[in-house]
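#onboarding

Welcome to the new folks! Below is a worked example of what a typical request in this channel looks like: someone posts a single protein sequence, and someone else replies with the predicted structure as tokens. Don't worry about understanding the tokens yet, we'll cover that in week two.

Example request:
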Amino acid sequence: MWLTLRIEVFVFVFLLLFIIIRAVLREHSSLNKQFLLLCYDLSLLSIIKVIALILPFSSYIWLHYIVICIEISLWLFVPYLFLKVTFERIGFSNLFENTSFRYLLSVPLEISMMLIALSPFYGFAFTLNLFGEPIYGDFFVVLQSIIVLFYFITFFACVIKIVRLNNFGEQFAIIEFLFYTVIMFVFQVFYNPFINSYLLVAATIIVILVFINLHDNKIFIDALTGLNNRNRFMRYLDSVMSSSRTNFYLTYVDIDDFKKINDNYGHITGDLALRTVAEGMHDLSLTTNAFFARIGGDEFAIISEHESESDLKNMLLALEQIVHQKALANMHNLDLSISLGTTELGGIDKTMSEVIKIADRKMYLQKKRKKNHRRAYD
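Example response:
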């Protein structure tokens, strides 16, 4: 009866994950790639669990060893994939472009895979007792240490992001992932993965919650660039202007000659220009507390806090330089530039629409000066 119940649990988990995978695949979104891999991992785990329960150990000893090797490998990839899902959600996915960071994650995985692969012969990670039950090997603690490392990195990244954010709504969204990280850590580190199904069930519940979170997040995320959209921008602007905080600035950003880019090079290149500016903003978000959003078309907005106007100018200059460098890498012969218009938010008696109009007008004045300068130069 207990065996039948466990099999039913794993089959139910697999069906739940299958439904989520099917829903994600229908969205055709590259942003869900790591989340999809996590779902695949847990689905395979549920299948492996069922196989291990059905096959009699006495008749299939070596097959049991192979099944357990696959199972432990899949368990090991759970915190790794969860780390990548979390980093995509909190905007730290650019770190995977750093070679040192990739080595920090890949080398422990490679060591673990070697220990697991050699376990049927030397019992490094696990061995099977006379009843076919897996027990810890001498180096199983190495695998647990690697799991702890992945969860520690995830936890630490969430804390850094929460500290950097000024908006409670955004902070709360990251706190959710912080909570998921703690739950996954507790179940995976303190429960024996060989003798219970708690972790698989807990991980599946968290996957469902993350799936709901990702869908709720689409209401406030621009699909093309991954930045905050106009809805979230208006909410955040309202919260800043309603508070008593000072030293906040609103900056409107517009791509120069964007219509010409679309007309001369096509909309695919136009979309690439938009993503290039967004990538520059994503990079800048790693070193600043600024709020970045795409308002619509080729217009973007930044809400940032600075102790002085010189700090603001330095941030905007850094943005222009990053966008220029990324344009050279992404768009080759196309010279991409942006125009900026800034106004102070703190201590002013104006409505949101009036503040936006001021920033928008200053941005177009800069755009006009650039055009006049080019004409004079020509």
